[in-house]
Amino acid sequence: METDYLKRCFGNSLSQALAEVAKVQPSDPVEYLAHWLYHYRKIATGKEKNRLEKIRLQEEYQHSLKEKEMREMLKQEEYQIQQKCAEHHKEQISTEKAMFLQEDTEPFEQEALEQESLPGTSDMSPAVPQRSPPSESTGQTEQNSDTP
């Protein structure tokens, strides 16, 4: 029972310390054993801190890799969105252009259709305005207005 306690608390360190005391055979073995155990504890604590720091750094590194991967995915997604936006913008511009051209040509088409449907206007071209021949009554009114 007491040996279990000593093994649990000291582990291998006590047997290493006693082996060191037997090897060196100092004049005050109790003081030497105390210093050796104190020094061992400092080293063990430092090793444990280094181990925990190494684990923390590995976790941090893994986290940074995940962040980098996420940034790359976001950049790729942003690029795809920009491409889709540009495509949509081009489609919108072409649609608006087509609508504008259609709106511009609709009055001319309508006018052309109206002129084609009028009787006696088949020989008239829609781009050139036609003059009607002067009538006799128009000439007489001009003469009447000149003579008092």
What is the C-alpha radius of gyration, as a whole number of Å?
A: 52 Å
Low-confidence stretches: 137-142
**Can you give the helix content as a percent range?**
over 70%
In percent terms, what proportion of residues is strand? under 5%
Q: Please outline the major beta sheet.
A: none
**What is the 3D shape?**
rod-shaped
How many individual β-strands?
0
Q: State mean pLDDT (0 to 100 scale).
A: 79
Element-by-element helix/strand order: HHHH
User: What class, by secondary structure content?
Assistant: mainly alpha
Our measurement of the CA-to-CA distance between the termini, rounded to an integer number of angstroms, reads 152 Å
**How many distinct helices?**
4
Description:
The protein has 148 residues and is an all-alpha fold. The chain is 82% helix and 0% strand. Helix 2 (13-24) packs across helix 3 (29-117).
Name the features.
148 residues, mainly alpha, 82% helix
SSE map:
Layout: H1 2-10, H2 13-24, H3 29-117, H4 136-146
Helix pairs in contact: 2-3
Q: Quick gist of this model?
A:
With 148 residues, this protein is mainly α. The protein is built from four helices and no strands.
